Amino acid sequence: MNISTTSIKKIDTKVLLSTLWIVVMINMLKADILSLNIPGAAEEVARTSASAGVSISQLMLVGAIMGNLSIAMIVLSRVLKYGLNRWVNIVVGIVTIAYIWGGMSSYPHYIFIASVETLCLLLIVWFAARWRNLEG
Prior knowledge:
By secondary structure, the protein is an all-alpha fold. It has one domain (12-130). Helix content is 76%, strand content 0%. Helix 1 (13-36) runs antiparallel to helix 5 (108-130). The chain is elongated, with a radius of gyration of 17 Å. It starts with 12 loop residues before the first helix and ends in a 6-residue tail after the last helix.
C-alpha cells in the first residue's frame, strides 16, 4: 500500500499536544498503580522523603501538583492562545521530564514507562517549539 503525504490529514497542533498530554497522564497513573504493588514501596517513599529533607506529606503534595499540572495541560493545550500555549507546553514539558527522572526508580516497569513518558514529552516540546501560527 502506497500512502502519499497528501492522503494523510494534518492534525491540529492543539489537538496533537493535548493528545500527547493524555498519553503522558495515563502512563504516570499506570506507573503509580504498578508501583503500589511492590513490597516495601511505602518504606521507599519514607526513605526518599528523609533524603530530600521533606515530610512524606510534602513529597506527596509535589506529586499531586505535578500530576494535576499534567492534567491541566490536557485542557490548556486546547484553549490557550498560540503564543502562551506554545511556551507553556515547552516549559511544562521540560519540567515534567525533570520530575519523572528526578523521582527515578530502578524498577523495570518504571524505567519503561518513564521512557514512554519522556518520548511523548520530547514530542510535545518538539512540536510546540516548531509550531508556527498560520492564522495571524
